[in-house]
Design a protein that fits this description.
The chain is elongated, with a radius of gyration of 48 Å. It contains 2 helices and 2 strands, in the order ααββ. It is an alpha+beta fold and about 110 residues long. A hairpin with a 5-residue loop joins β1 and β2. Strands 1-2 form a two-stranded antiparallel sheet.
């Protein structure tokens, strides 16, 4: 895959340079000043080559092994004083009710 991308990149560079040369060739009219153009090309090539060939270091570096982090400190336990409270007794009360014939009677009513 890496070689294919290099070939494609190189082909695009060649196509760009050749199209630029084909477009600008009739307008160049170098005439008798060939040496200045050649010197400029050489100097530009040397400077561009020096910039492009800077050392980049290794692309792939081996794995770096590090020590695992230390375990977290143990959690502090806080004890709170608790008091036992029994459940409140249901508040029951007595009410007068009537049955279907209208006779009254007392009933103990608890909300729970």
């Amino acid at each position: 895959m890496f070689a294919l991308s290099k070939v494609i990149t190189c082909g695009l560079a060649v196509a760009t340079v050749t199209s630029a040369l084909a477009v600008t060739t009739p307008a160049a009219e170098a005439r008798d000043d060939f040496a200045a153009g050649l010197a400029g090309g050489l100097v530009g090539g040397l400077i561009g080559g020096a910039i492009a060939s800077q050392p980049r270091g290794r692309v792939y570096e081996g794995p770096v092994y590090i020590d695992p982090p230390p375990p977290p400190p143990p959690r502090r336990v806080y004890y709170e004083r608790t008091y036992y409270r029994p459940a409140p007794a249901p508040r029951c009360h007595y009410e007068w009710r009537e049955n279907g014939w209208g006779e009254a009677y007392r009933v103990r009513v608890c909300p729970y």
